[in-house]
Design brief:
Blueprint lengths: L2 H18 L4 E2 L2 E2 L3 H11 L2 H18 L2 E2 L5 E2 L4 H13 L11 H30 L10 H28 L1 H4 L11 H4 L2
Antiparallel strand pairs: 1-2, 3-4
Length: about 190
C-alpha cells in the first residue's frame, strides 16, 4: 500500500468534511467522506495495515473535528475517534471475503457498517470520558438515545455519500499500490497433458 496516497486522501477527506461538511448535513445528521476512505483502504490493503490506517484516520478525525460543547466552545479530544475507527475497521475486516467489491451497494453497506460501529464506540467513549472527568457529554442537553439515532442516521448518510466517493476511488486504485495476490489452485487445466 502506498502510504503517501492514503495520507493525502485522508487529509483531503478530513479537510472537505471540516470545510464543506454543511453541504452534507440535514438537520443534526451529517455525512462524512473520511469513513469511505478508511473502508476503501480496509477492503483492499493487507490486513496487517488496516488497523494502522484506521488509527491514523481516527487521529485526523479527532484533530479536524472538535467536539462542540453545550456552551458553544470547541474541544479537541484525541482518542475517541481513534478508538472508534479502530473498532469500525475491525468490523469491516471480516466482510472482505463476503463483499463483491465491484458492486457499489456492497461498498456502501460496508461504509454504513463501519460508521455504525464507529459511532457507537464514539458514544461509549464520550460517556466514559464524561463519567471519569465529571463533565457533560458532547450532546448535552439532548439524551443519549437521541444521539444514537443521530449517529446511526449519520452512518446511513455516510453510506449514501460513499456511492460517488467509491466511484472516484475505484478510478484511482492503481496509484494506491494495493498488493493483489491471485491464488492458483492445482487442477487438470494447470497440469498439462
Amino acid at each position: 500500500m502506498n502510504w503517501s496516497v492514503y495520507i493525502v486522501a485522508a487529509l483531503l477527506a478530513s479537510a472537505l468534511d471540516a470545510g464543506l461538511g454543511g453541504l452534507f448535513q440535514i438537520g443534526a445528521v451529517r455525512a462524512e467522506i473520511l469513513p469511505s476512505i478508511v473502508v476503501f483502504m480496509a477492503l483492499s490493503a493487507p490486513k496487517k495495515l488496516v488497523l494502522r490506517g484506521a488509527l491514523f484516520a481516527g487521529l485526523i478525525a479527532d484533530l479536524f473535528g472538535p467536539v462542540i460543547l453545550a456552551d458553544g466552545s470547541p474541544l479537541v479530544v484525541l482518542g475517541p475517534r481513534v478508538l472508534a475507527y479502530a473498532l469500525g475497521a475491525a468490523a469491516v475486516i471480516p466482510l472482505r471475503g463476503l463483499l463483491y467489491r465491484q458492486n457499489p451497494l456492497s461498498n456502501s453497506a460496508a461504509v454504513t457498517i463501519f460508521s455504525s460501529f464507529a459511532a457507537l464506540a464514539w458514544i461509549v467513549v464520550s460517556i466514559l470520558r464524561s463519567v471519569v472527568t465529571g463533565g457533560a457529554v458532547p450532546w448535552w442537553p439532548a439524551t443519549g438515545t437521541s444521539e444514537v439515532v443521530v449517529q446511526c442516521l449519520g452512518a446511513l448518510g455516510d453510506g449514501v455519500l460513499a456511492l460517488p466517493v467509491f466511484w472516484v476511488l475505484t478510478r484511482t486504485k492503481p496509484i494506491w499500490g494495493f498488493e493483489t495476490k491471485t491464488r492458483l489452485t492445482p487442477g487438470v487445466a494447470r497440469e498439462g497433458l
